[in-house]
Automatic annotation (TrEMBL), chains A, B:
Gene name per UniProt: yngG
GO biological process: ketone body biosynthetic process; L-leucine catabolic process
Protein's recorded name: Hydroxymethylglutaryl-CoA lyase YngG
Cited Gene3D superfamilies: Aldolase class I
Domain Pyruvate carboxyltransferase residues, every copy: 7-274
Amino acid sequence: MNLSKQVQIKEVGPRDGLQNEKKEIATEDKIEWINRMSESGLSYIEITSFVHPKWIPQLKDAVEVAKSIERKDGVTYAALVPNMKGLERAIEADVDEVSIFMSASESHNKNNINKSISETYPILREVVDEAKKAGKSVRGYVSTVFGCPYEGNVDEHQAIDVCDNLFNMGIDELSIGDTIGVANPVQVERVLSEFEKHFSKDKIALHFHDTRGMALANTVVALQLGYHIFDSALGGLGGCPYAKGASGNVATDDLAHMLQQMGLEQSIDLNKLQEAAQFIESKLDQPLPSKQMGISRRL
Amino acid sequence: MNLSKQVQIKEVGPRDGLQNEKKEIATEDKIEWINRMSESGLSYIEITSFVHPKWIPQLKDAVEVAKSIERKDGVTYAALVPNMKGLERAIEADVDEVSIFMSASESHNKNNINKSISETYPILREVVDEAKKAGKSVRGYVSTVFGCPYEGNVDEHQAIDVCDNLFNMGIDELSIGDTIGVANPVQVERVLSEFEKHFSKDKIALHFHDTRGMALANTVVALQLGYHIFDSALGGLGGCPYAKGASGNVATDDLAHMLQQMGLEQSIDLNKLQEAAQFIESKLDQPLPSKQMGISRRL
């Protein structure tokens, strides 16, 4: 296997994980958790979302979290911003990078943002421009690239068109998402082979959900094609198999373990990572779904 | 991806799954479950083990199960036999195929069979000879090919040597096992690339455990190399993430779903398969760990 040695994991648990957990975690526990993850060797943590608390009450303490965590050298602390108001708060809280988001499919975009795809661009452009003026790098999430809950299949050329428009705004990196966890390895190979005709692999991250158990298989196929940036959530947070409507981010601990076994990742301390997972699990009402956590409970 | 279209799943849940579940399932429920799996389109089911009840009391009803299930045309019904006594019972119960087993590593073989590898061969040879005389095809399980709980790494040439000896006895197919679920995709590629220098891919099955979540990723790598026979247990039976010492067979429902999505499997009715999984889950004390079962519980 001819694989890139420059693999990077981007931890999205404090945002994508917690926003899908019913239970609200105390602010001090979030801070402690993020600090522990910083100490584990992770180099990128999306710490929160500056979304209105009406939509995601679990993340209403975004400013306090961002201001109170210990910033470790070499770690990028990012946060999601849905609009200009969110961006203002993110800049005030001095995160390193902001993330914006939209969908590759019309109906998911409409359901999620209440706007058509073409109506979404100017709003995002304004946010990107302001973020850049404030010296922030910008990441974009493109949802439903591998399937849409309303439309089913999503044409990869439509996804590429959305990505093209986002890169043209000056966005630094796009994370393309298998939002509902339906991507399979053959499809991932087809879609990514098309993507590589248009974009640098250094600027495309893969955001796999493990709803159907294919996330690590899809990761291997992406690695074989030379992609090397992967999003995940510690412990599989937000995706407990026994919770209704769970979205199921691939688990950082399972991903990091596999990458280390494959000889592709050396910077993460898996024991510290597991301790950080155990810490947040102790604040939840149910066990985390990752395999590594399953093993640690059996020991 | 250049993949074989002749993929076959071999269901080992009634043997490898149930022997790792604490709870004893009623004989009539096992029979009903196996009949339901036959109806789902599975073409191979290992229905039990003719091992002494002292060792695996969960399977003490082996003869009754084998004699009472409905045999469906086109389905191979197999059973594990540890020795001549087991073979006699298997022949009496008229299974289609018998499986024997040993390990690729000395210490696991010693712990499991209480004999050295070289002491094991003549015993197995006698079983194979008798089975062949009775007109049965013979399958062999080779454990710890991808790692041993006592020795760690297992040299692939040692595993190949064991396989060579077993094939020389006239065994029809060998299932090489990642007994403790440690195989990673890079290792699978290395080991299988070595195996293909010695053996036909039509005679080597992969027996992955999903203890660390890598089973489907390993499956994809094996598929890419042209391997096309895979063992699994419905629902991930025997591998509940919350049970101590769980071995974690990859789940048939997750495997079949992925293979169908990849365009490689058409004969299994996933709905019937899921109903069969729900049936056996209803007889257990805890939910089955497969992703497909997680989804079905959320619907």
